[in-house]
Protein backbone atom coordinates (compact mmCIF):
# COMPACT_ATOMS: atom_id res chain seq x y z
CA UNK A 1 0.00 0.00 0.00
CA UNK A 2 1.13 3.52 -0.62
CA UNK A 3 3.37 4.96 2.09
CA UNK A 4 1.59 7.75 3.89
CA UNK A 5 -1.74 5.88 3.96
CA UNK A 6 -3.57 6.62 7.21
CA UNK A 7 -3.84 3.86 9.81
CA UNK A 8 -7.64 3.63 9.64
CA UNK A 9 -7.66 3.32 5.86
CA UNK A 10 -4.91 0.70 6.05
CA UNK A 11 -6.87 -1.30 8.62
CA UNK A 12 -10.05 -1.21 6.56
CA UNK A 13 -8.23 -2.33 3.42
CA UNK A 14 -6.44 -5.12 5.30
CA UNK A 15 -9.79 -6.27 6.56
CA UNK A 16 -11.08 -6.50 2.96
CA UNK A 17 -7.96 -8.27 1.74
CA UNK A 18 -8.13 -11.06 4.32
CA UNK A 19 -11.68 -12.37 4.62
CA UNK A 20 -10.69 -14.19 7.83
CA UNK A 21 -9.69 -10.89 9.43
CA UNK A 22 -12.52 -9.60 11.56
CA UNK A 23 -13.36 -5.94 11.78
CA UNK A 24 -12.83 -6.18 15.53
CA UNK A 25 -9.21 -5.15 15.23
CA UNK A 26 -9.99 -2.18 13.07
CA UNK A 27 -11.74 -0.47 15.94
CA UNK A 28 -9.46 -1.90 18.65
CA UNK A 29 -6.31 -0.77 16.87
CA UNK A 30 -7.82 2.63 16.14
CA UNK A 31 -8.49 3.08 19.85
CA UNK A 32 -5.00 1.86 20.73
CA UNK A 33 -3.76 4.55 18.36
CA UNK A 34 -5.86 7.10 20.27
CA UNK A 35 -4.19 6.06 23.53
CA UNK A 36 -0.81 6.28 21.79
CA UNK A 37 -1.51 9.86 20.74
CA UNK A 38 -2.53 10.89 24.25
CA UNK A 39 0.59 9.24 25.68
CA UNK A 40 2.82 10.71 23.02
CA UNK A 41 1.61 14.16 24.06
CA UNK A 42 2.20 13.44 27.76
CA UNK A 43 5.63 11.92 27.14
CA UNK A 44 6.62 15.03 25.25
CA UNK A 45 5.69 17.12 28.26
CA UNK A 46 7.61 14.90 30.69
CA UNK A 47 10.51 17.35 30.93
CA UNK A 48 8.11 20.06 32.08
CA UNK A 49 6.78 17.98 34.94
CA UNK A 50 8.84 19.63 37.68
CA UNK A 51 8.28 23.08 36.27
CA UNK A 52 4.52 22.62 36.09
CA UNK A 53 4.41 21.06 39.53
CA UNK A 54 3.46 17.45 38.87
CA UNK A 55 4.64 14.44 40.92
CA UNK A 56 1.65 14.08 43.18
CA UNK A 57 1.22 17.84 43.51
CA UNK A 58 -1.45 19.80 41.70
CA UNK A 59 -0.70 20.98 38.20
CA UNK A 60 -1.58 24.37 36.78
CA UNK A 61 -5.14 23.23 36.17
CA UNK A 62 -5.55 22.20 39.79
CA UNK A 63 -5.58 18.50 38.89
CA UNK A 64 -3.56 15.89 40.75
CA UNK A 65 -1.09 14.37 38.34
CA UNK A 66 -0.09 10.73 38.33
CA UNK A 67 3.16 9.08 37.52
CA UNK A 68 3.49 8.46 33.80
CA UNK A 69 3.23 4.67 34.02
CA UNK A 70 0.04 4.92 36.05
CA UNK A 71 -1.25 7.50 33.61
CA UNK A 72 -0.42 5.23 30.67
CA UNK A 73 -2.19 2.33 32.34
CA UNK A 74 -5.34 4.35 32.99
CA UNK A 75 -5.32 5.87 29.53
CA UNK A 76 -5.34 2.48 27.81
CA UNK A 77 -8.15 1.28 30.07
CA UNK A 78 -10.21 4.41 29.45
CA UNK A 79 -9.99 4.26 25.66
CA UNK A 80 -10.41 0.48 25.37
CA UNK A 81 -13.11 -0.45 27.85
CA UNK A 82 -15.99 0.99 25.85
CA UNK A 83 -15.15 -0.70 22.52
CA UNK A 84 -17.32 -3.74 23.17
CA UNK A 85 -14.51 -6.05 22.07
CA UNK A 86 -12.88 -6.75 25.44
CA UNK A 87 -13.80 -8.74 28.53
CA UNK A 88 -10.72 -7.88 30.58
CA UNK A 89 -7.37 -6.12 30.70
CA UNK A 90 -4.18 -7.32 32.39
CA UNK A 91 -1.25 -5.01 32.94
CA UNK A 92 2.23 -4.96 34.40
CA UNK A 93 0.93 -2.09 36.53
CA UNK A 94 -2.01 -3.97 38.08
CA UNK A 95 -1.83 -6.88 40.50
CA UNK A 96 -5.15 -8.28 39.25
CA UNK A 97 -6.81 -7.93 35.84
CA UNK A 98 -9.32 -5.18 35.22
CA UNK A 99 -12.80 -6.48 34.46
CA UNK A 100 -14.83 -4.56 31.89
CA UNK A 101 -17.59 -3.00 34.00
CA UNK A 102 -21.21 -3.97 33.40
CA UNK A 103 -21.88 -0.46 32.11
CA UNK A 104 -20.08 -1.40 28.88
CA UNK A 105 -20.76 -4.15 26.35
CA UNK A 106 -18.46 -7.14 26.80
CA UNK A 107 -16.45 -8.71 24.03
CA UNK A 108 -14.53 -11.84 23.18
CA UNK A 109 -10.94 -10.64 23.63
CA UNK A 110 -8.54 -9.93 26.47
CA UNK A 111 -5.91 -7.20 26.31
CA UNK A 112 -2.52 -7.43 28.03
CA UNK A 113 -0.04 -4.59 28.29
CA UNK A 114 3.15 -3.07 29.51
CA UNK A 115 1.65 0.43 29.40
CA UNK A 116 4.98 2.15 29.84
CA UNK A 117 8.18 0.36 29.05
CA UNK A 118 11.55 1.84 29.92
CA UNK A 119 10.28 3.93 32.84
CA UNK A 120 13.81 4.61 34.10
CA UNK A 121 14.39 6.59 30.90
CA UNK A 122 11.47 9.01 31.34
CA UNK A 123 13.43 11.54 33.37
CA UNK A 124 16.35 11.62 30.98
CA UNK A 125 14.56 12.18 27.70
CA UNK A 126 15.34 8.78 26.18
CA UNK A 127 12.90 6.71 24.10
CA UNK A 128 10.25 4.75 25.97
CA UNK A 129 7.31 2.68 24.75
CA UNK A 130 4.13 0.69 25.32
CA UNK A 131 3.64 -3.00 24.45
CA UNK A 132 0.35 -4.89 24.00
CA UNK A 133 -1.06 -8.32 23.19
CA UNK A 134 -4.59 -9.48 22.37
CA UNK A 135 -6.00 -13.00 22.81
CA UNK A 136 -9.41 -14.53 22.25
CA UNK A 137 -10.94 -15.29 25.65
CA UNK A 138 -11.40 -18.93 26.65
CA UNK A 139 -14.05 -18.64 29.34
CA UNK A 140 -17.71 -17.91 28.65
CA UNK A 141 -18.99 -16.23 31.83
CA UNK A 142 -19.69 -12.60 32.65
CA UNK A 143 -16.08 -11.92 33.68
CA UNK A 144 -12.60 -12.65 32.41
CA UNK A 145 -10.91 -15.54 34.21
CA UNK A 146 -7.22 -16.25 34.79
CA UNK A 147 -7.19 -18.82 31.98
CA UNK A 148 -8.21 -16.10 29.53
CA UNK A 149 -4.89 -14.37 30.22
CA UNK A 150 -2.59 -17.37 30.71
CA UNK A 151 -2.30 -18.34 27.07
CA UNK A 152 0.65 -19.34 24.94
CA UNK A 153 2.07 -16.52 22.83
CA UNK A 154 1.31 -18.68 19.80
CA UNK A 155 -2.40 -18.00 20.39
CA UNK A 156 -2.12 -14.22 20.14
CA UNK A 157 -4.39 -12.67 17.57
CA UNK A 158 -2.73 -9.29 17.63
CA UNK A 159 0.36 -7.73 19.18
CA UNK A 160 2.09 -4.42 18.87
CA UNK A 161 4.09 -1.67 20.45
CA UNK A 162 4.33 2.07 20.41
CA UNK A 163 7.69 3.77 20.61
CA UNK A 164 7.86 7.35 21.84
CA UNK A 165 11.14 8.27 20.23
CA UNK A 166 12.42 11.05 18.01
CA UNK A 167 9.09 10.36 16.38
CA UNK A 168 6.21 8.30 17.73
CA UNK A 169 5.58 5.03 15.92
CA UNK A 170 3.09 2.23 16.25
CA UNK A 171 4.07 -1.22 15.00
CA UNK A 172 1.60 -4.11 15.00
CA UNK A 173 0.76 -7.52 13.60
CA UNK A 174 -2.48 -9.46 13.38
CA UNK A 175 -0.65 -12.42 11.89
CA UNK A 176 -0.49 -10.94 8.39
CA UNK A 177 2.94 -9.33 8.46
CA UNK A 178 4.26 -6.50 10.60
CA UNK A 179 3.42 -2.93 9.76
CA UNK A 180 4.75 0.35 11.12
CA UNK A 181 3.05 3.75 11.27
CA UNK A 182 4.61 7.06 12.19
CA UNK A 183 2.62 9.75 13.96
CA UNK A 184 2.41 12.95 11.97
CA UNK A 185 2.06 15.43 14.83
CA UNK A 186 0.78 18.11 12.45
CA UNK A 187 -2.42 16.23 11.66
CA UNK A 188 -2.43 13.86 14.64
CA UNK A 189 -2.62 10.75 12.47
CA UNK A 190 -0.52 7.62 12.19
CA UNK A 191 0.68 7.21 8.60
CA UNK A 192 2.06 4.06 7.03
CA UNK A 193 5.85 4.34 7.05
CA UNK A 194 7.04 0.71 7.18
CA UNK A 195 4.97 -1.91 5.36
CA UNK A 196 5.69 -5.61 5.86
CA UNK A 197 8.78 -5.27 8.04
CA UNK A 198 11.29 -8.13 7.76
CA UNK A 199 14.18 -8.43 10.17
CA UNK A 200 17.49 -9.32 8.45
CA UNK A 201 18.36 -12.98 9.17
CA UNK A 202 21.66 -11.84 10.65
CA UNK A 203 22.52 -8.52 12.24
CA UNK A 204 25.60 -6.67 13.37
CA UNK A 205 24.18 -5.39 16.67
CA UNK A 206 24.02 -7.06 20.08
CA UNK A 207 22.05 -5.58 22.98
CA UNK A 208 22.57 -6.77 26.54
CA UNK A 209 23.22 -5.14 29.91
CA UNK A 210 26.91 -5.98 30.21
CA UNK A 211 26.95 -4.63 33.76
CA UNK A 212 25.48 -7.99 34.68
CA UNK A 213 28.43 -9.94 33.29
CA UNK A 214 29.55 -11.29 36.65
CA UNK A 215 26.10 -12.64 37.49
CA UNK A 216 25.29 -14.13 34.09
CA UNK A 217 24.47 -17.82 33.92
CA UNK A 218 26.06 -20.49 31.78
CA UNK A 219 27.03 -19.74 28.24
CA UNK A 220 26.05 -16.05 28.12
CA UNK A 221 29.59 -14.78 28.64
CA UNK A 222 30.95 -17.15 26.03
CA UNK A 223 28.34 -16.06 23.53
CA UNK A 224 29.11 -12.38 24.12
CA UNK A 225 32.83 -13.07 23.62
CA UNK A 226 31.90 -14.74 20.35
CA UNK A 227 29.83 -11.81 19.05
CA UNK A 228 32.71 -9.48 19.82
CA UNK A 229 35.04 -11.72 17.81
CA UNK A 230 32.51 -11.56 14.96
CA UNK A 231 32.81 -7.79 15.15
CA UNK A 232 29.24 -7.03 16.27
CA UNK A 233 28.64 -3.63 17.78
CA UNK A 234 26.99 -2.98 21.18
CA UNK A 235 23.79 -0.93 21.50
CA UNK A 236 21.72 -0.92 24.71
CA UNK A 237 19.13 1.75 25.45
CA UNK A 238 17.57 0.13 28.53
CA UNK A 239 14.07 0.49 27.05
CA UNK A 240 13.14 -2.88 25.62
CA UNK A 241 10.86 -1.34 23.01
CA UNK A 242 13.62 0.92 21.73
CA UNK A 243 16.25 -1.83 21.67
CA UNK A 244 13.81 -4.21 19.98
CA UNK A 245 12.65 -1.65 17.43
CA UNK A 246 16.17 -0.77 16.34
CA UNK A 247 17.14 -4.42 16.00
CA UNK A 248 13.91 -5.23 14.13
CA UNK A 249 14.69 -2.64 11.49
CA UNK A 250 18.45 -3.07 11.29
CA UNK A 251 18.99 -6.68 12.33
CA UNK A 252 20.49 -7.73 15.63
CA UNK A 253 19.98 -9.62 18.84
CA UNK A 254 18.64 -8.53 22.25
CA UNK A 255 19.31 -10.64 25.34
CA UNK A 256 18.01 -10.39 28.88
CA UNK A 257 19.13 -13.78 30.17
CA UNK A 258 18.62 -15.36 33.56
CA UNK A 259 21.27 -14.29 36.06
CA UNK A 260 22.11 -14.75 39.73
CA UNK A 261 19.81 -11.86 40.65
CA UNK A 262 16.96 -12.61 38.25
CA UNK A 263 16.75 -16.40 38.21
CA UNK A 264 13.99 -16.35 35.59
CA UNK A 265 15.22 -13.31 33.74
CA UNK A 266 13.80 -9.86 34.34
CA UNK A 267 11.27 -9.30 31.59
CA UNK A 268 7.62 -10.32 31.77
CA UNK A 269 6.42 -13.17 29.59
CA UNK A 270 2.88 -11.92 28.98
CA UNK A 271 3.44 -8.17 28.67
CA UNK A 272 6.87 -7.98 27.05
CA UNK A 273 8.35 -11.23 25.72
CA UNK A 274 5.30 -12.84 24.07
CA UNK A 275 4.03 -9.83 22.11
CA UNK A 276 7.52 -8.99 20.84
CA UNK A 277 8.13 -12.66 19.98
CA UNK A 278 4.90 -12.73 17.93
CA UNK A 279 6.00 -9.60 16.10
CA UNK A 280 9.54 -10.85 15.49
CA UNK A 281 8.31 -14.20 14.13
CA UNK A 282 5.91 -12.40 11.81
CA UNK A 283 8.97 -10.46 10.62
CA UNK A 284 10.88 -13.75 10.06
CA UNK A 285 12.96 -13.46 13.23
CA UNK A 286 13.01 -15.54 16.40
CA UNK A 287 12.33 -15.19 20.12
CA UNK A 288 13.46 -17.77 22.67
CA UNK A 289 14.22 -18.20 26.36
CA UNK A 290 17.45 -19.95 25.44
CA UNK A 291 15.81 -23.36 25.29
CA UNK A 292 12.37 -23.06 23.76
CA UNK A 293 10.49 -20.60 21.64
CA UNK A 294 8.82 -17.88 23.70
CA UNK A 295 5.57 -18.46 21.82
CA UNK A 296 5.44 -22.10 22.97
CA UNK A 297 5.70 -21.35 26.70
CA UNK A 298 2.50 -22.07 28.61
CA UNK A 299 2.34 -19.37 31.31
CA UNK A 300 1.29 -20.28 34.82
CA UNK A 301 1.40 -16.84 36.42
CA UNK A 302 0.17 -13.48 35.23
CA UNK A 303 3.36 -11.59 36.10
CA UNK A 304 5.74 -14.42 35.23
CA UNK A 305 9.25 -13.48 34.15
CA UNK A 306 11.25 -15.15 31.42
CA UNK A 307 14.77 -14.97 29.96
CA UNK A 308 14.52 -13.31 26.55
CA UNK A 309 16.74 -13.79 23.52
CA UNK A 310 15.14 -12.14 20.53
CA UNK A 311 15.96 -10.77 17.12
CA UNK A 312 17.55 -11.95 13.87
CA UNK A 313 16.89 -15.64 13.28
CA UNK A 314 20.45 -16.86 12.81
CA UNK A 315 21.78 -14.79 15.68
CA UNK A 316 19.17 -16.18 18.08
CA UNK A 317 19.91 -19.73 16.91
CA UNK A 318 23.62 -19.16 17.48
CA UNK A 319 22.98 -17.74 20.97
CA UNK A 320 20.75 -20.69 21.85
CA UNK A 321 23.64 -23.01 21.02
CA UNK A 322 25.63 -21.38 23.82
CA UNK A 323 22.77 -20.91 26.29
CA UNK A 324 21.32 -24.40 26.13
CA UNK A 325 24.68 -26.12 26.61
P1 LIG B 1 9.64 -1.39 32.59
O1 LIG B 1 10.05 0.03 32.50
O2 LIG B 1 8.36 -1.69 31.89
O3 LIG B 1 9.67 -1.92 34.01
O4 LIG B 1 10.69 -2.28 31.78
C1 LIG B 1 12.07 -2.11 32.02
C2 LIG B 1 12.81 -3.15 31.30
C3 LIG B 1 13.03 -2.99 29.81
O5 LIG B 1 12.46 -1.89 29.20
C4 LIG B 1 14.52 -2.94 29.65
O6 LIG B 1 14.91 -3.71 28.56
C5 LIG B 1 15.05 -3.51 30.92
O7 LIG B 1 14.08 -3.29 31.90
C6 LIG B 1 16.34 -2.89 31.33
O8 LIG B 1 16.76 -3.50 32.48
P2 LIG B 1 18.23 -3.24 33.09
O9 LIG B 1 18.25 -1.85 33.57
O10 LIG B 1 18.32 -4.26 34.19
O11 LIG B 1 19.21 -3.51 31.99
MN1 LIG C 1 8.82 -3.04 30.32
MN1 LIG D 1 6.41 -0.95 32.35
Question: Helix tally?
Answer: 9
CA radius of gyration: 19 Å
Give the class-level CATH name of the largest domain: Alpha Beta
The SS-based structural class is alpha+beta
Task: Tell me the CATH architecture of the largest domain.
Answer: 2-Layer Sandwich
Largest sheet: 8 strands, mixed
Low-confidence stretches: none
**How many strands in all?**
15
Helix content: 25-40%
Determine the CATH topology of the largest domain. Answer: Fructose-1,6-Bisphosphatase, Chain A, domain 1
Question: What ligand species are in this complex?
Answer: 2,5-anhydro-1,6-di-O-phosphono-D-glucitol, manganese (II) ion
Overall pLDDT, averaged? 93
Keywords:
2 domains, D-Maltodextrin-Binding Protein, domain 2, alpha+beta, binds 2,5-anhydro-1,6-di-O-phosphono-D-glucitol, binds manganese (II) ion, Fructose-1,6-Bisphosphatase, Chain A, domain 1
Structure commentary:
There is one protein chain. The protein folds into two domains: 7-194, 2-Layer Sandwich (Fructose-1,6-Bisphosphatase, Chain A, domain 1); 205-323, D-Maltodextrin-Binding Protein, domain 2 (3-Layer(aba) Sandwich), CATH 3.40.190.80. Strand 7 (178-184) and strand 8 form a beta hairpin. The chain has 325 residues and is α+β, with helices and mostly antiparallel strands. The protein contains nine helices and 15 strands. 30% of the residues lie in helices and 23% in strands. The chain has an eight-stranded mixed β-sheet, sandwiched between helices. Strands 10-9-11-15-13 form a five-stranded mixed β-sheet, sandwiched between helices. Bound molecules: 2,5-anhydro-1,6-di-O-phosphono-D-glucitol and manganese (II) ion (2 copies). One manganese (II) ion binds at residues 114, 117, 240, 272.
Amino acid sequence: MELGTGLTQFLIEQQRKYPSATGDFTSLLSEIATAAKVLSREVNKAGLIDILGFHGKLNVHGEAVQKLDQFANDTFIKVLRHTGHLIGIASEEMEEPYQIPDAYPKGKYVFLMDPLDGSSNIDVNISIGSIFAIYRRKSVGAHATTEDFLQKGRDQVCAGYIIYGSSTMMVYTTGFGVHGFTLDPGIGEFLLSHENIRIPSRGSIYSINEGNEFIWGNGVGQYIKQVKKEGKTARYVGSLVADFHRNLLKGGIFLYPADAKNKNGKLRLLYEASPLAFIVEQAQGKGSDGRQMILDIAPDKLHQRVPLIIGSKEDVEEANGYLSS
